[in-house]
Amino acid sequence: VVARQRAEMDRLRDLAAASAVVERAKGAVMALTGCSAQAAAETLAQRAEAAGRTVLEESWVTLGDSGAFGPPHTGPTAGDPPPAAGKPGGTPGRASVATCPDASEPAAADGASASLARLARDLVHVGTPQDLARCLLEHLAPDAGADAVMLYARLPAGGLDLIGHAGIDKTLAAQWHRVPPLNGMAPLDVLRDRRPRWLEDIERDRERYLLIGDPPERWRSRAWLPVATGDAADVCLGVLRRDGGPFPPATREHLKAVALLCAGRLRTFGTRPEPAAGGTADAVQRVLDALPVAAMLLTPLRTSSGAVHDYRIDAATEQAADVVGRGGGELIGRRLTECLPAAESAALCRGCLHTLLTGKPYEGPPFAHQKVVGGVAELSTYSVRVAALDGGLVLTWIRHDSSDRQEQRLADLQRLGNLGWATWNLSTHVATWSSQVFAIFGRNPARGPVRLTDLPGLALPDEAPALDRAVRALIGEGRPLDLPFRTRTPAGVRHLRFVAEAVTGIDGTPVEVLGFVQDLTARRRAELALVESERAMLTQHDVLRAERTLAARLQDALLPLPRRPLEPAGLRVEVAYLPAQSGVNVGGDWFSAIELPDGDALFVVGDVAGHGVDAVATMAQLRFTAKGMVITGSSLTGALARLNTLLLHSRGSHGTASMVMARYQPAGRRLLWAQAGHPPPLLLRGGRARYLDRPSGILLGATASPVFREAECRLRPGDRIILYTDGLVERPPESIDRGLERLAEAAVAHHVEESGSLGTLLAA
């Protein structure tokens, strides 16, 4: 159990340390770009995905780059072999973490990526450059064959200072601890031009450089890489190997990526400032050490233009660790954005800047902070305050006790519920209102609260008597009160709810009244709007029902459906009608099947756009007019042209309509037909189905100059012709061609001779 708990604590510490790195990187992005915390997190995630890194790796890279978005050098470096043609050398504009220079090494690239991810996680536990060197050797020994690691920092005078090493003895470290600015030193050349040096042939390299080692042959190959901590390279990473020979391309890319990750860690080591001028920081630190508070002294850091881009911590109390997570001594010299979560540092930096510019103290809103005390997570509430001090700032965290938190929760409850509490002392006649009650009544707090007996005077005149009776019953009999009423405020009439009860004394007489007032205006308006909407819906429903009933009666009267087959000109005609929606059988579809005076038969199927009374009226007009025109001698195309003119010039016309007209001449079994934007008839013959070729024709009512043509079909005994409307074959979003295919297949499958077969076919 203890082992599991220790493992879980280690896991939580690792997670917290990694989260702190990510939060500092988010803060750096926010400080440089002015974006929000969410946008900074998304930026880090996008950059990590584009470069093939984890978010933690990208955070280290961002912390090491002062521009945060300025791409570090990734082009060819001195000693690098030229990239193979057609093979990638990394992500454009950024150093690639898992670059695979050869297509035959995907596994190696994957391994390098995993190794970098492990290194990024281990860097969060590194506290000094010496620890960093040990960590790098532990990772680079299996990955790059490293036998020693050295970290050199540039001195102000131009020399080198050995700030970390691993794999070399103390004697050698002491000998090469300080290196003067000599010519022929590979680390110095690397820092001057920010390009790696790959020393892979010791005999040739000793002619160009002064090699570190006693003897130098102890390491037969070396790599020196710049670690860019900002706009300049001030640290050089050395990787020394006992084996000679060149560094493989994959290893070179891996070492470049390692140097890129280390930049963020090294930059945090190098942020400790020189002592503050005049000893102000020391004096403030002595004062802070004597105070039992969490506080910091901040010095603004300015750009060359004078703009403040961050704040340096020059003094801090140990109690600041409760909020920041580090001891007071560890905070000194660090930047504010590195020590606080991104969301908190962004708001705090704005408050600090306001105090610097105006000199007025800033107090931030309360925020929750969780810490672990004795293995138990404890949630505390803090607020931060900033005050100006001799060109700097004093930042203090105030921890709220339980009563403060309770008061804040009560204020939040009143604000969110739009209600406020009130008390009336019936003995002293002293009334107390919360601030929310004044806001609800629109009353200036300077005027004070209203006495309970005067409260009905705030209600509208028609509701004041009921409220007055309820208040008298409350005061005289102690009867609880729960009553809605309306009041007039500067913002208009409000709907309120007043709930109160009496507190009685020993003799049972009410001595105090406790209650609350709630603003229900928004809810009441919503209820009234809902009632009006329901009333309008019922009215509209009645209108639609009456209209549908009227249209149905009109349709039944104007277009009765035959109950048995018709037999004009020696043909058998069946009619079937299937509404597209259940219960809605009122539309513009119609048919005519009559025998003409000369013995021919006329068949018409049409479809008027829309439904309802207008569609039925247009349908009746077209149906009767079409029959009349053909009976009086008009041709099919002539009738369609006249119907088009009628539809265009009819007042209140329903718009457009499609139609197919067919005339059967029994003497020659000729079927003449024309169409106006209508699907073609379907011919069943000999167990096969085909659609007749459509002659020219356009929708009725679509144009003033349509062109209609006739087509002819010779029928045989046993043939069947199906005329239909498009509602039978349309099924959005399916193509109409698929609907026509489905109708033809169904017609062949249900080809029977008995009466009623058409309805069976269409239902199928």
Automatic annotation (TrEMBL):
Pfam families: SpoIIE. The keyword Hydrolase applies. InterPro entries: ANTAR, Bact_Sigma-Reg, GAF-like_dom_sf, PAS-like_dom_sf, PPM-type-like_dom_sf, PPM-type_phosphatase-like_dom. Signal peptide: none annotated. Coiled coil: none annotated. Residues 8-63 form the ANTAR domain. The keyword Hydrolase applies. Residues 64-108 are annotated as: Disordered. Keywords: Hydrolase. Residues 571-761 form the PPM-type phosphatase domain. This is Protein phosphatase. It comes from Streptomyces leeuwenhoekii. The lineage of its organism: Bacteria, Bacillati, Actinomycetota, Actinomycetes, Kitasatosporales.
